[in-house]
Task: inverse folding
């Protein structure tokens, strides 16, 4: 595609619900990153894939967060038993190489009530 | 620990009033320093990469410079369309360490 596509654009969840956020990277991009951005803050790293391999998940805040990229293209970030502190914008980015220049999607704004 | 500090947090300029944004960093070896622009409701958009002290990059009214401890984003004669949040990020020189972002500077340019 022309750019990184994320869906849904907005997600409202009740506390305790599970959510799944989708990222469709630029075709041919090897690396895929997930970042979390709280209001008024910079993006915080969550996890990184190179093709289908998850090489770094050190930024995932708890074991309620899980990410996958089974075929080395589309990625899904899943949050189980959502809590209010999970409310943020979740950004996906991809790059052709190992992350020198990232192309970001517009993000999914998650609100947990 | 790798850290990026941006100042000021917010900046309000009149159209045509030049200024500079600061990005100070502490990193275990620098592979690259990046500037991104972020508009409300959008993801960050790449502007520049700087790799070594003394390097400069320019794009329209923006010029980025780099020293061993900080980077500046100079904005010359800004226009209202330059209003955005400007994010600085560093890539540490260790393995596949991802970009570490600062909190950004919110720039407003008033006509």
Result:
């Amino acid at each position: 595609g022309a750019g990184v596509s994320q869906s849904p654009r907005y997600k409202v969840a009740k506390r305790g619900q599970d959510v799944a956020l989708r990222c469709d990277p630029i075709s041919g991009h090897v690396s895929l990153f997930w970042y979390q951005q709280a209001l008024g803050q910079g993006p915080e790293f969550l996890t990184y894939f190179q093709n289908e391999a998850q090489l770094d998940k050190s930024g995932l805040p708890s074991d309620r967060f899980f990410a996958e990229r089974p075929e080395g293209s589309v990625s899904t970030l899943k949050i189980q038993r959502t809590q209010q502190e999970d409310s943020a914008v979740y950004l996906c980015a991809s790059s052709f190489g190992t992350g020198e220049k990232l192309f970001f999607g517009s993000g999914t704004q998650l609100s947990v009530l | 620990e790798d850290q990026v500090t941006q100042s000021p947090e917010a900046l309000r300029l009149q159209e045509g009033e030049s200024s500079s944004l600061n990005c100070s960093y502490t990193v275990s070896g620098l592979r690259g320093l990046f500037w991104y622009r972020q508009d409300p409701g959008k993801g960050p958009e790449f502007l520049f990469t700087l790799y070594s002290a003394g390097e400069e990059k320019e794009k329209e009214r923006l010029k980025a410079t780099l020293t061993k401890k900080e980077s500046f984003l100079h904005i010359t004669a800004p226009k209202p369309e330059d209003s955005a949040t400007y994010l600085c990020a560093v890539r540490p020189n260790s393995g596949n360490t991802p970009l570490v972002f600062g909190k950004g500077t919110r720039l407003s340019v008033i006509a």
